Amino acid sequence: MGEQEFIRAEHINKTFSKQGKKIKAVDDVSLELYRGECFGLIGESGSGKSTLANVIAGLEKADSGAVYMDGPGGKINLLDAGNRKIQKEYCQKRQMIFQNPRLSFNPAMTIGKGLEEGVRYYTKIPAARRKELALENLELVGLKREYYDRHSSELSGGECQRAAIARALMIEPEFLICDEITSALDVSVQAQIMSLFMEIQKKKKMTCLFISHDLALVSSICNRIAVMYNGKIVESGDTKQIIYHSSSNYTQKLLQSVFFADRETMTRYERKKMESSI
Ligand SMILES: Nc1ncnc2c1ncn2[C@@H]1O[C@H](COP(=O)(O)OP(=O)(O)O)[C@@H](O)[C@H]1O
Ligand SMILES: [Mg+2]
User: Fold this and answer.
1) How many angstroms does the Cα of residue 105 sit away from the middle of ligand 1?
2) Which tens digit of pLDDT belongs to each residue from 203-239?
3) What number does the ligand 1 atom closest to the CA of 180 have?
4) Per-position DSSP letters for 205-252, written without gaps between them
């Protein structure tokens, strides 16, 4: 109720050629994200999640399809390759966070300068204010001011992912795409990064496409999800509806492997915890 559509991907197709063979990585995928929601995209490795994310982010060119964002002037097709103005504007509205946080930083650059890069490129904010912004965002993700002068190689994986989140926040994006952002981290660190991420997503009211192969993780934070398999969305909608009343054989298998493999032997406490998380 009252949900306002913000991002809509329509009939996205993307085929790769590999050693003469064609791989249909994304096969006629459509999805819509409401403003301010954290929408989950799940599916096993190789199902096409990252390719779809990259197309939606404008980092990868689709064979066909469109991605619309709702703006003051109505809907615009973000994939309108001929329109540089739209592309530049979109780059200021969306950010992506990846599995490997080190790739977000140039190893030769300090974290502070890395944070400021986007602001320097897209805005006319003066240097002193840029630095203040970087320090504010470091604080927001729980990193000390000293990290401004460090290099990514001096940070732990978790710290580096915090810095990557701070970097993504610098231009105040309206749309955030997170591709397996905790998959490379230790389990204990994963939980910290997730709670940090959720807090920030809510506080900033960002629309988010949250991608993971981890169904338990996605279903614990997203009210709506889509399940991807073999380049297609096999199911999408309300998380609880999908978990409890899935109509897709694939989703059911995925669910069994994650939640219910051990259901018989689960203690009542574990079951309650599991059910309250979805
Ligand atoms: N640049 C590429 N060149 C060739 N094949 C690719 C490329 N990127 C992805 N693929 C293939 O596309 C399919 C989907 O990959 P991907 O989008 O990375 O899936 P996921 O993120 O769900 O693991 C896989 O079969 C993968 O091997
Ligand atoms: Mg991937």
Assistant:
1) 23
2) 999 999 999 988 888 988 999 999 999 999 999 999 9
3) 21
4) T-EEEEEES-HHHHHHH-SEEEEEETTEEEEEEEHHHHHHH---HHHH
